[in-house]
Amino acid sequence: MAEPEVEQCDVAVIGGGPGGSTAATLLARRGYKVIALEKAHHPRFHIGESLLPMNLPVFERLGVLDKVRELGVFKRGADFETDDACGYNVYAFSRAIGQSPPHAYQVWRQDFDRMLYQHARECGAEAREGHEVLRVEQRGPRESRLEVRTDDGRDYAIRARYVVDASGRDALLATKMKLRRRSRQHQSAAIFGHFRGADRRDGEDAGNVSIYRFAQGWMWMIPLPDGVMSVGAVCRPDYLKQRRGRTLEFLFDTLKLNPALWQRVERAGLIGDEVHVTGNYSYDATRMGGPGWVLVGDAFAFLDPVFSSGVYLAMDGAERAAELVDAALREPRCERALLRRLERRQRKGMARFAFFIHRFNSPVMRQMLRSPRNTWQLEQAVISMLAGDLFDTPKVLWRLQLFKLVHAIGVLHDWRRSRAERRYRLAQARASLGRE
């Protein structure tokens, strides 16, 4: 049997999502021969339609901000339900205390991803679709062999000086190297669909992403172009298992569990009666990279989507990974230190998101988000976190630390109150028994 043909490149990028396209674009612009490989064909369906304000500077540096603006729905903030007359509280991005932009966009991911991949192609990357990476063999710090199969059955190989794994939740290299580990703190699943005719917020709030809670988790409403609304629920996996083949009915039954959300959806029509179900198991890799390879976006770690962090973390990480690859190929001695610094930065940013994610449905966090107080600008720091500004702005970061302390005090107070109530009920029960 003949040996498959072998192509040569400087950088092979696995995956054609936002992270892979960003890395491919920036490295091609720096003059490297880049081969980008996407196993599917664009456009392909993907969840994660809500972008963050901190995405916008990345779009500007890539040169695609105008294209995103054409594709997207303007989003001024995120809103959470409250008990007041309005029914919701808006965390407006314009109130952030860092340098994050005052708005963001929501997009159809299939259109957004296709635009970014095409842009990488226009910038000089050889962006291929229907090309699946089957195996990666590292033969040296500057020599990796990728075995690829096209969707028409042709096999070939690529010899690359560097590999950027942006394969998403396939996590190709992390799985192959047995680096992937599930989070013990957080596991969830999602059920969702796209509706036409759901009620949007009034006026300037019409593009907000709306977040609701229910006993089993939380729900979202994301306005999309052409009058479409993405609506779904993130819940515990054992709850979702109860659907037992009743996926369509189960979605509607779940949405009815929050009356405020259901009021906005009950007259809308589910497009194509199509319901999507996916696992949202949080995970990370024990290492972000090594000599000649680096993990980007979901190929490195995946968090619960409650704060819409996925696209931003992937693109920000890819932008910095591109700088790392460029430096490592020019000066290999600096690679280890740069990789260690990048991984430390990414993990710290994800940990700041994770603090809120892991406590999102707790009574204390629920109360703090429903009835925010801006003492010491803590509410504005949370807005900055929601905008994605959680890496480099000291006045945001120390306030998020202070928020943790305030939250801990609230948890302690809640625990003491619960204990006192239990003692009171027990004393009442004993007194009642004594009277009998």
Automatic annotation (TrEMBL):
It holds the Pfam family FAD_binding_3. GO terms for molecular function: FAD binding. SUPFAM superfamilies: FAD/NAD(P)-binding domain. InterPro entries: FAD-bd, FAD/NAD-bd_sf, Flavin-dep_Halogenase_NPB. Residues 9-342 form the FAD-binding domain. PANTHER family: FAD-BINDING PROTEIN, SLR1998 PROTEIN. This is Hydroxylase. It comes from Rhodanobacter thiooxydans.
